[in-house]
Design goal:
The complex is a heterodimer of chains A (about 110) and B (about 110).
Chain A: E1 5-7, E2 10-13, E3 19-24, E4 31-37, E5 43-50, E6 65-69, E7 75-79, E8 88-95, E9 104-105, E10 109-113
Parallel strand pairs in A: 2-10
Antiparallel strand pairs in A: 1-3, 3-7, 4-5, 4-8, 6-7, 8-9, 8-10
Chain B: E1 4-5, E2 10-14, E3 19-25, E4 32-38, E5 45-51, E6 56-59, E7 62-67, E8 72-77, E9 86-93, E10 100-101, E11 105-110
Parallel strand pairs in B: 2-11
Antiparallel strand pairs in B: 1-3, 3-8, 4-5, 4-9, 6-7, 7-8, 9-10, 9-11
The chains are: A mainly beta (about 110), B mainly beta (about 110).
Chain lengths: ~110, ~110
């Protein structure tokens, strides 16, 4: 596609439920990143996929968070047993190589845990 | 630990005047610095960057200045236009692909 596509754009869920957030990167981009922005905070790194290499999961805040990237393309971020502090905008970005240039972000998924 | 800091969360400026956004960082290993612009309900978009081997980079109305000894960079927008009203994020990287972001500055350009 022309850009990074994220779905859903908005998600309201009850505390304790699991949610899945989807990211469809730009075709051909080998690198994919997940960030989140909580209210009043900057963008917080979560996880990074590069090609077929093992992902860098060092930013995931707890073991309730996991992500996978199937076939080197679409990625799903899963949050299990959601908590109110998980409420944030979850942003996905992709890039064509190892350089930070050409980082293209999607519009994000606004997650609200009630 | 906030490695990239943006103080003065909001800035209002008259159209045609200069907007100056400041950013401080703590990690001396950072070697690339970027500014992103974000409109509501959209993802951040890349605006301008600077390598640590330079002290200035200019692109049209946007100029970024880097002072490595002070671990400080700034973004100048001149002249400011109403379409520049957005949140601006400062970001930094040190050789890996991860970016450390500041909290952002809201800029409002008054027509």
């Amino acid at each position: 596609g022309a850009g990074v596509s994220q779905s859903p754009s908005n998600k309201v869920t009850e505390k304790g439920k699991d949610v899945e957030l989807r990211c469809d990167p730009i075709s051909g981009h080998t690198a994919l990143y997940w960030y989140r922005q909580s209210l009043g905070q900057g963008l917080e790194f979560l996880i990074y996929f590069q090609g077929n290499s093992a992902p860098d999961k060092s930013g995931l805040p707890s073991d309730r968070f996991s992500a996978e990237r199937t076939g080197g393309s679409v990625s799903t971020l899963t949050i299990q047993r959601t908590q109110q502090e998980d409420s944030a905008v979850y942003l996905c970005a992709s890039s064509s190589g190892r350089s930070v240039y050409g980082y293209t972000f999607g519009s994000g998924t606004r997650l609200t845990v009630v | 630990d906030q490695q990239v800091k943006q103080n003065s969360p909001s800035l209002s400026v008259q159209e045609g005047r200069i907007s100056i956004l400041n950013c401080d960082y703590t990690n001396s290993m950072f070697d690339y610095f970027l500014w992103y612009k974000k409109y509501p309900a959209e993802g951040p978009t890349f605006l301008i960057s600077i390598s640590s081997i330079k002290d200035k980079n200019e692109d049209g109305r946007f100029t970024v200045f880097l002072n490595k000894s002070a671990k400080h960079l700034s973004l100048h927008i001149v002249p400011s236009q109403p379409g520049d009203s957005a949140v601006y994020f400062c970001a930094a990287s040190y050789g890996n692909n991860r970016l450390a972001f500041g909290k952002g500055n809201q800029v409002v350009v008054i027509p």
